[in-house]
Design goal:
Shape: elongated
Number of strands: 2
Largest sheet: 2 strands, antiparallel
Length: 206
């Protein structure tokens, strides 16, 4: 595998390697707070007694509606950047990831001691990104249908009515919370240097 690096595509120890540029870092920090606010307010709206982080339903709805615009901005901007820069090739699984998936799974299940090396993201992360993309689109469509009391409610027909749209929106939120948890698990257990790169933009191989 070829690594994005400082010399002929080779990874050099103790030398800073670009990992996340300014655009992807900025968009990541638009997504992170908007997602957590959407999740917290959404689960409160679904069941006020289950989440005690808002004073009232009105406060939760205002937070939810404000955060959804940042979430929509992130998704559209990130999708545009991924296509224009061809960055999507680093985000979604390819033939190389399928070929090395068994070795990655063996390492994650503690059946293999040596950690496999990947240019940027491992197969597990790429699989989660693929799931996130599908769930993001689902949330945007179902959320738009639930938010609108006018023309956009025609979208509910694709899900079998308003009740089913609410159910799909809720289940997608639960699934999305799980995928984000998986992403955070990989981020916190992989490498501290890689974790810091989402702030600094650079990764220093050891």
């Amino acid at each position: 595998m070829k690594f994005t690096n400082n010399l002929l595509g080779l990874r050099i120890k103790a030398v800073n390697t670009p990992r996340h540029n300014r655009i992807t870092r900025a968009l990541h920090w638009v997504l992170a707070p908007s997602f957590f606010l959407l999740a917290a307010s959404g689960f409160y709206i679904h069941k006020p007694g289950g989440v005690r982080c808002f004073r009232s339903m009105d406060a939760a709805r205002k937070v939810h509606f404000a955060a959804q615009y940042f979430f929509g901005f992130y998704f559209l901007s990130r999708a545009y950047y991924a296509v224009v820069s061809r960055d999507y090739r680093k985000l979604f699984p390819g033939s190389d990831d399928i070929a090395t998936a068994s070795g990655f799974a063996a390492y994650e299940l503690f059946l293999k001691k040596k950690e496999p090396k990947y240019p940027k993201y491992n197969p597990g992360q790429k699989l989660l990104f693929s799931q996130m993309a599908i769930l993001f689109i689902t949330q945007l469509f179902t959320g738009a249908a639930l938010y609108s009391s006018g023309k956009l409610q025609v979208l509910t027909r694709f899900f079998g009515g308003l009740h089913n749209t609410r159910l799909v929106h809720y289940l997608a939120a639960v699934a999305l919370t799980g995928t984000v948890s998986g992403h955070m698990y990989f981020a916190f257990t992989d490498s501290l240097e890689k974790l810091k790169s989402i702030i600094t933009g650079y990764f220093r191989p050891k």
